[in-house]
TrEMBL record:
It comes from Geotalea uraniireducens (strain Rf4). InterPro entries: NuoE-like (IPR002023), NuoE_dom (IPR042128), NuoE_N (IPR041921), Thioredoxin-like_sf (IPR036249). This is NADH dehydrogenase subunit E. Keywords: 2Fe-2S, Iron, Iron-sulfur, Metal-binding, Oxidoreductase. [2Fe-2S] cluster binds at C80, C85, C121, C125. It is an enzyme of class 1 (oxidoreductase). PANTHER family: NADH DEHYDROGENASE [UBIQUINONE] FLAVOPROTEIN 2, MITOCHONDRIAL (PTHR10371:SF3), NADH DEHYDROGENASE UBIQUINONE FLAVOPROTEIN 2, MITOCHONDRIAL (PTHR10371). The keyword Secreted does not apply.
C-alpha cells in the first residue's frame, strides 16, 4: 500500500508533466522502488494516479525492460547482450556472472540478492562489455572487476 507522502509526491510529479502518460515511467519506477517490483496492486495504483487504464499501464510496463512485472532480487544486474558488447567479450562476461552467482540469465539467486537479466544496449558501447546495477553503469568489465563490483554490491545490501 502506498504511503500518503508517496502518493502526494507522485501526484505533484504527474501535475508537472505535459501529459500524464509522460510521467508514467517515472511513476512506475517509484512504485517499483516502493514494492520491490511492479505488483498488480502497483499497476492499479499507477493507473488510478495517471488516469490510464490498467491495460495501458501494463502495455507501458512490459515495454520497458527496467520495469519488473515479477519479483526480482534486491539488486538487478542488467548485462548488455547487444552487438558492440558481444564483440568485446559480452558473452564471456554473462557466463562469468552466471557462474559467479550460480544462476542462469533470467534467474534470481536463492538468497534473493541478485537477479541477472540480459538487456539491450545500455548506451555505453564504447566501454563494453557493460552492465548496469540499479542506477550505476559499469563498463570495460573484466573478471576481476566483476568480482570487485559484486563484492561491493553485497556490502551495500
Ligand atoms: S552494445 Fe552494450 S552498451 Fe551498447
Amino acid at each position: 500500500m502506498l504511503t500518503d507522502d508517496l502518493r502526494q509526491e507522485l501526484r505533484t510529479r504527474i501535475a508537472a508533466a505535459v501529459t500524464s502518460r509522460e510521467a508514467a515511467v517515472d511513476v512506475m519506477k517509484e512504485l517499483q522502488r516502493h514494492y520491490g517490483w511492479l505488483t498488480d496492486e502497483a499497476v492499479e495504483e499507477a493507473a488510478a494516479l495517471l488516469g490510464l487504464s490498467t491495460l495501458q499501464v501494463e502495455e507501458l510496463a512490459t515495454f520497458y525492460e527496467m520495469i519488473y512485472r515479477r519479483p526480482v532480487g534486491r539488486r538487478v544486474i542488467h548485462a548488455c547482450d547487444s552487438i558492440s558488447c558481444w564483440a568485446v567479450g559480452g558473452e564471456h562476461m554473462m557466463a562469468q556472472l552466471a557462474r559467479h552467482l550460480g544462476i542462469e540469465p533470467g534467474e534470481t539467486t536463492k538468497d534473493g540478492m541478485f537477479t541477472l537479466l540480459p538487456c539491450c544496449c545500455l548506451g555505453n558501447c564504447g566501454d563494453g562489455p557493460a552492465m548496469m546495477i540499479g542506477d550505476t553503469l559499469y563498463g570495460r568489465l573484466t573478471a576481476e572487476k566483476l568480482e570487485e563490483i559484486l563484492a561491493q554490491e553485497k556490502k551495500t545490501l
